[in-house]
């Protein structure tokens, strides 16, 4: 779409009667002024293969993170999006606070009257174990803070979904678990902050969408289904981003805390593992890494 076409789209959008977001083409990223006017930085644009180069989209994720760097703390504190007057408490450990909340949300999720599947419970317990290790270590972790927030907000959405009587939530719960599994897998990699920023941005974006999805689920107005569709498209596109980043991290780094990633393929038996330093979390776990069956 040309700049002229984008301007026409914006004019139509501003003249529309419905107050519902409309996702623009990714080419709008090449027109910063139109992007600010038509979309802005509160919600992520969903990635679509072929519309923009992957490295360009990762650049957008880095910009999104810079614009929303404090949102992980706001989400931990459960602040409203329009709450501008707030500050982070002294000595605030975001990853510790997020791990604590995440651990509690998983306990609530497991206690729901509607039974979770064995697969769901296995993932939930794996999340709890990683949160427990993080709480015991007390170390600050950039990626863990964002990952736990993403997982926690998906758990809150799942708690609401299982009580939903409007539709069968099975597929939505499965999709939330896909996001949660990806977020956990990404946390298990040892990467520097600059490498982790695109993943952190995607997880913050997903956490905000999960929070918005809960609001949409509670609505009864005629436009709620349109907001739900937009939210769903953003979540699907961003979940695909997490999957792509998982593959990049798996190719470029080694995972800590577990022998294999959840849902990831195991290494071929002919490949000899490289020697590496045992992490603090592994020492806390009381054993070295051992290969295990991935979650299916």
Order of helices and strands: HHHHHHHHHHH
Overall pLDDT level: 81
Helix content: 55-70%
Shape: globular
Helix and strand composition category: mainly alpha
Strand residue percentage: under 5%
N/C terminus separation: 41 Å
Sheet bearing the most strands, described?
none
Unreliable spans are 264-296
Give the tally of β-strands.
Answer: 0
Rg measurement, Å: 20 Å
SS summary, helix count? 11
Describe this protein's structure.
The chain has 296 residues and is mainly alpha-helical. It has a domain at 71-83 and 94-252. It contains eleven helices and no strands. It is globular, with a radius of gyration of 20 Å. The N and C termini lie far apart (41 Å). Mean pLDDT is 81; it is low at 264-296. Residues 287-296 have a biased composition (Polar residues). Residues 268-284 have a biased composition (Basic and acidic residues). Residues 264-296 are annotated as: Disordered.
């Amino acid at each position: 779409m040309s700049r002229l076409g984008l301007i026409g789209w914006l004019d139509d959008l501003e003249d529309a009667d419905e107050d519902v977001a409309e996702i623009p083409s990714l080419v709008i990223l090449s027109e910063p002024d139109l992007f600010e006017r038509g979309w802005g930085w509160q919600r992520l644009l969903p990635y679509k293969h072929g519309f923009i180069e992957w490295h360009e989209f990762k650049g957008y994720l880095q910009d999104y993170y810079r614009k929303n760097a404090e949102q992980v703390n706001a989400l931990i504190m459960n602040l409203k999006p329009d709450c501008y007057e707030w500050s982070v408490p002294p000595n605030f450990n975001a990853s510790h606070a997020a791990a604590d909340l995440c651990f509690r949300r998983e306990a609530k999720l497991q206690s729901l009257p509607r039974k979770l599947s064995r697969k769901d419970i296995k993932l939930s317990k794996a999340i709890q174990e990683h949160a427990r290790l993080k709480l015991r270590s007390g170390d600050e972790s950039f990626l863990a803070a964002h990952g736990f927030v993403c997982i926690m907000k998906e758990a809150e959405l799942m708690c609401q979904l299982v009580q939903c009587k409007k539709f069968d939530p099975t597929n939505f719960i499965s999709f939330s678990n896909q996001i949660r599994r990806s977020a956990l897998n990404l946390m298990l990699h040892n990467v520097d902050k600059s490498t982790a920023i695109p993943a952190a941005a995607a997880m913050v974006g997903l956490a905000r969408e999960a929070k918005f999805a809960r609001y949409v689920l509670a609505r009864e107005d005629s436009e709620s289904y349109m907001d739900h569709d937009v939210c769903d498209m953003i979540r699907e596109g961003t979940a695909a981003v997490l999957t792509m980043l998982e593959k990049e991290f798996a190719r470029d780094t080694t995972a800590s805390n577990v022998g294999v990633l959840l849902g990831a393929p195991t290494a071929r038996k002919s490949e000899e593992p490289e020697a590496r330093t045992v992490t603090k979390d592994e020492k806390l776990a009381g054993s070295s890494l051992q290969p295990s069956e991935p979650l299916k």
